[in-house]
């Protein structure tokens, strides 16, 4: 007798019955009882939509961060400009105070340099004083000091302080003589000039 036929005939009929029963159970299984691995599969379209949404959210966060960075840069630039202005203002005030404290010294030079001297010794002293005065004025002018024009100029109450009553008439008020110099520092009035005023005749 053939051995293969003997093996087939010797197969347990119970095994075949169990296999058929398992197939029948799978066919009759409720979709709700589908394995989790199958139920959890993501639709590619939904996955793409979620990815695009995540990308838009990331772009919004990046834009917000960039705007925050730009504001920080602008704030820093404004802070630096404000500090520079404050430092310039402090330096200007300090410079102005220094120059104001030197005005009496300049007045003394102005008074001395118009003195009439006769001796050679006095002329040498006066020459030395003038050299010192010129050096001082050159330094101060480099810092922005300006002498206010006076004699012959049109009278301006902003920079000229009259010490006499103007003569009657309709002519234009002009500065006749300077009694004490006035100064500006970088365009800002430090001290008005003391002047004598007169009126320009209509014929002039």
Structure explained in plain terms:
By secondary structure, the chain is α+β, with helices and mostly antiparallel strands. The chain has a domain at 145-204: Nucleotide Exchange Factor Grpe, Chain A, domain 2. Helices cover 59% and strands 14% of the residues. It has five helices and six strands. A three-stranded antiparallel beta sheet has the order 1-4-5. Strands 2-6-3 form a three-stranded mixed beta sheet, with no helix packed on it. It is elongated, with a radius of gyration of 51 Å. The termini are far apart. Residues 1-5 have low confidence and may be disordered.
Key attributes of the depicted protein:
single chain; 204 residues; alpha+beta; Nucleotide Exchange Factor Grpe, Chain A, domain 2; three-stranded antiparallel sheet; three-stranded mixed sheet; 59% helix; elongated
In brief, what are we looking at here?
With about 200 residues, the chain is α+β, with helices and mostly antiparallel strands. The protein is built from five helices and six strands.
Averaging pLDDT over every residue, what do you get? 82
**Lateral arrangement of strands in the main beta sheet:** 1-4-5
Helical segment count: 5
Number of strands: 6
Largest sheet: 3 strands, antiparallel
Q: What portion of residues is helical? A: 55-70%
How much of the polypeptide forms β-strand, as a percent range? Answer: 5-15%
Topology of helices and strands:
Blueprint: H1 3-9, H2 13-28, H3 36-39, H4 44-113, H5 120-142, E1 145-147, E2 160-162, E3 173-180, E4 183-185, E5 188-191, E6 193-199
Helix pairs in contact: 4-5
């Amino acid at each position: 007798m053939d051995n293969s036929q003997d093996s087939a005939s010797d197969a347990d009929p119970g095994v075949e019955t169990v296999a058929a029963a398992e197939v029948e159970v799978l066919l009759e299984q409720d979709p709700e009882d589908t394995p989790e691995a199958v139920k959890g599969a993501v639709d590619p379209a939904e996955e793409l939509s979620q990815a695009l949404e995540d990308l838009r959210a990331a772009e919004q966060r990046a834009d917000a961060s960039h705007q925050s960075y730009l504001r920080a840069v602008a704030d820093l630039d404004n802070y630096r400009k404000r500090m520079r202005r404050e430092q310039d203002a402090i330096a200007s005030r300090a410079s102005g105070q220094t120059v104001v404290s030197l005005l009496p010294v300049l007045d003394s030079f102005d008074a001395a340099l118009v003195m009439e001297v006769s001796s050679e010794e006095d002329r040498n002293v006066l020459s030395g004083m003038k050299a010192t005065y010129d050096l001082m004025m050159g330094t101060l002018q480099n810092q922005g000091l300006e002498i206010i024009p006076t004699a012959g100029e049109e009278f301006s109450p902003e920079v000229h302080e009259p010490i006499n009553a103007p003569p009657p008439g309709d002519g234009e008020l002009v500065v006749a003589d300077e009694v004490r110099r006035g100064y500006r520092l970088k365009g800002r009035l430090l001290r008005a000039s003391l002047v004598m005023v007169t009126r320009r005749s209509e014929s002039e």
